[in-house]
Amino acid sequence: MPSVAKQPDPTRVPVLDLLRLAAVGAVILYHYGFWGTASHGVQKVAMPYLAPVAQYGFLGVPVFFAISGFVIAYSAEGRTPVGFAIARFSRIYPTFVICMTLTFLVTLLLGYPWFQVTWGQWLANLIIAAPMLGQPYMDDAYWSLVIEVVFYAWVALFLAWGVFPRRIDTIIVVWIAITFANELTLDVPLFEKLFMADDSGFFAVGLLIYEHYRGRRDMRLYSLLTLAMGTATFQAVHKLERLGVHTHGSFDPRVVAAICIVSLAIVFAATRIKSVLLPDSVVRAVGGITYPLYLLHLQLGYVILLLITPAPNALSTTLVVAGMVVLAWFVWRFLEAPAHYRVRDGLTTLASRYGWPSRIRAGDARINPGNIAAPAEAGRIANH
Q1: Distance CA 216, CA 221 (A)
Q2: Could you give the CA distance from residue 91 to residue 367 in angstroms, rounded to a whole number?
Q3: pLDDT tens digit string along 321-353?
Q4: pLDDT, tens digit, for every residue of 25-55?
Q5: How far apart are CA 130 and CA 226, in angstroms?
Q6: What is the C-alpha to C-alpha distance for residues 374 and 85, in angstroms, rounded to an integer?
Q7: What's the CA gap between 227 and 138, in Å, rounded?
Q8: How far apart are CA 60 and CA 264, in angstroms?
Q9: pTM exceeds 0.85, yes or no
Q10: Is 137 helix (H, G, I), strand (E, B) or coil?
């Protein structure tokens, strides 16, 4: 890979926090404005007057994947495979368990007759991929977490092999080749899940944007970025056939393509903006609540919404969404950080006892070629 300049000094990209909120807002608009509680047989379209716009909110999830590609590349800098695994696990799992358990308890106590859950379902969801144990997700939105975890596993494996990020170009080319082979000819379900063939282009875009962020400038990078963006757009359009069957909606592929291209361009532009006019505490709160808000808004929100009224309207929906935002803030402000630090410190201590360092030693270029050191506070951007 061509040599790169020294990594920029700033340890945060504040606009990404705002983009996370915009992405989760699009998903909420999709679930409450278009899909509603239809997946559970209650109603088909939550707010028909919003449906023509809200139906495209599903694209908020793949935009999250692109941001994740950037953030995970940042998180991997300077870390060993063990350190990377600890950082990711301690960041997503404690919050997941907290939010999943809240959803379970509220649904168990207040969900009948619309929703039913069991303790067996709760136990199965502790591994995130509950369908592997024959149980449904506690919340339908959890499917995307499985994809994220698979992505983390590949990055950890590539770190262990010493090819990430040194062979990032090769990784992306092979990944995209497998994607098109499976999507256009093979259509093997195992390949789709193992190689994230429905969303690989978005992760690849994020990885390449990070390469640009850390100072790389060459035609190969721009060519790969164009290829990855094209792949992401193809994947989003390719999903429409299945999505149309699932939702009985009608989607314009030109609109989907335009949203993809513009959204990914905005993610790229966001990494070039060093500061925003909002107070830092506000930006941190915005970035902090997006993960718990994503985990809480759907199933838990539906239960509360149907308790308020069996025929949700704009007012009741707005109240519920506002309540989910407040609850997400509470989880982030008072529960997430203590759980994260306790799990992270405990696992780091345990790993050190077995001689497994979390950080790459100075001068060790096997995993971090070129000795490009991550900023001392690189975790600040990777914390979400």
Answers
A1: 8
A2: 22
A3: 999 999 999 999 999 999 999 999 999 999 999
A4: 999 999 998 887 544 444 455 677 888 899 9
A5: 36
A6: 17
A7: 36
A8: 11
A9: yes
A10: coil
